[in-house]
Write a structure and sequence with these properties.
- The chain has a two-stranded parallel sheet with strand order 1-2.
- The chain has four helices and two strands.
- The longest helix has 13 residues.
- By secondary structure, it is mostly helical.
- The chain has one domain.
- Helices cover 44% and strands 4% of the residues.
Amino acid sequence: MKPGAVREGCGFPAREPSTGSGDVVTDARTAMGAYYEFTGMADRMVAGMLTTPGQIRECVTQYAELGVDEVMLYCYGRDPGQVDRLAEVVSAL
């Protein structure tokens, strides 16, 4: 990957990475779509959602390679357990 390039869907530079993991993906997509409906780009935002541990790690790693030392991950599902799952996914980075 060339310097400054970030995988499509990672959210850089247009938006922060948004995540949904495990059983909450459908719920998260619905919530995110409703949240961004007013922009006319809800489908694009939902399509960029990171839903697997590998996607999340890759995205956070790409930010780190750009020199970013803090990334905010948004959880759009209602299951509070997803915060613990995200912590587990990124803890090894």
